[in-house]
């Protein structure tokens, strides 16, 4: 599937799913994924880009170590829910935009942290998204990623592969995509890969763009 067709499919799936997304995700997090989202947000600092921000589940979790947050997503249906959260809570420091994680409308070397929670499973081309995250991060900037991927358990992995064609077709969700090689190929140095969640399906990854900030 080409990137445009891939993006169209993402928009179709998530616009349709938006109203029930948080309920479904809440159940997955409670019973399978654990607190990876909370972990990811706690790593962020400075100027933050959140790719594929979705319905904004992370937005209320950012602490005072974060100055500014830009959240981008392809789906206006998901963004509408996120916008309602911002209107209610934190305001001046959060900016939400319709945008593509594979072609970011941000300058080079402009953010301190890129946050990605459960996005690489649906982004049509995670290689491009990794390269774009690398481009916009300042040297030394951090990529924080919480994602699901192939279970560390052989039976769990096999089951996920059986179900995957359906999850891709109906949910644009690649259940067994390992996010780490995309980051390595984009030039990131990997600092941590921790496997958590039921069956070890969660990746908690910390990576950074080599170099140190100028000045
Ligand atoms: C499973 S949801 C995760 C949402 C949110 N990050 C969270 O943790 O709840 C995946 C999101 O990725 C978005 N998405 C997929 N491909 C994208 C892309 N290329 N650019 C921006 N957003 C994208 C979808 O619209 C959807 O909101």
Question: Can you give me a brief rundown of this structure?
Answer:
By secondary structure, this protein is α/β, with parallel strands linked by helices. It has a single domain (3-208), classed as 3-Layer(aba) Sandwich (Rossmann fold), CATH 3.40.50.
List the topology elements.
Elements (H helix, E strand, L loop, with lengths): L2 H31 L2 H8 L2 E6 L14 E8 L2 H13 L5 E5 L12 E7 L8 H11 E12 L5 H18 L8 H7 L2 E8 L5 E7 L7
Parallel strand pairs: 1-2, 1-4, 2-3, 4-5
Antiparallel strand pairs: 5-7, 6-7
Bound molecules: S-adenosylmethionine.
S-adenosylmethionine binds next to helix 1 and strand 2.
Uncertain parts: none
Determine the strand fraction and express it as a percent band.
15-25%
Q: What's the tally of helices? A: 6
**Overall pLDDT level:** 95
> How many structurally independent domains?
1
Number of E-type strands: 7
Q: Can you walk me through this structure?
A:
The protein contains six helices and seven strands; from the N terminus they run ααββαββαβααββ. Helix content is 41%, strand content 25%. It is α/β, with parallel strands linked by helices. The protein has one domain: Rossmann fold, CATH 3.40.50. It has helices at residues 3-33, 36-43, 76-88, 126-136, 154-171, 180-186, and strands at residues 46-51, 66-73, 94-98, 111-117, 137-148, 189-196, 202-208. The model has no long low-confidence stretch (mean pLDDT 95). It has a seven-stranded mixed sheet with strand order 3-2-1-4-5-7-6, sandwiched between helices. The longest helix has 31 residues, at 3-33. The site of S-adenosylmethionine has 22 residues, from α1 and β2.
């Amino acid at each position: 599937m080409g990137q445009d067709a891939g993006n169209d499919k993402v928009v179709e799936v998530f616009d349709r799913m938006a109203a029930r997304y948080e309920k479904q995700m809440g159940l997955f997090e409670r019973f399978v994924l654990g607190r990876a989202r909370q972990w990811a947000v706690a790593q962020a600092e400075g100027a933050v880009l959140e790719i594929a921000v979705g319905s904004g589940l992370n937005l209320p979790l950012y602490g005072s170590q974060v100055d500014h947050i830009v959240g981008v997503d392809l789906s206006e249906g998901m963004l509408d829910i996120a916008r309602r959260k911002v209107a209610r809570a934190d305001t001046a420091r959060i900016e939400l935009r319709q945008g593509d994680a594979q072609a970011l409308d941000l300058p080079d070397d402009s953010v301190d942290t890129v946050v990605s929670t459960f996005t690489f499973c649906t982004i049509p081309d995670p290689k491009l998204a990794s390269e774009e995250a690398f481009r916009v991060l300042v040297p030394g900037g951090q990529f924080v990623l919480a994602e699901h991927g192939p279970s560390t358990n052989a039976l769990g992995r096999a089951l996920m592969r059986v179900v995957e064609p359906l999850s891709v077709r109906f949910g644009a969700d690649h259940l067994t995509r390992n996010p780490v090689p995309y980051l390595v190929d984009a030039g990131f140095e990997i600092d941590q890969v921790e496997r958590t969640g039921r069956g070890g399906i969660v990746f908690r990854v910390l990576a950074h763009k080599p170099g140190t900030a100028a000045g």
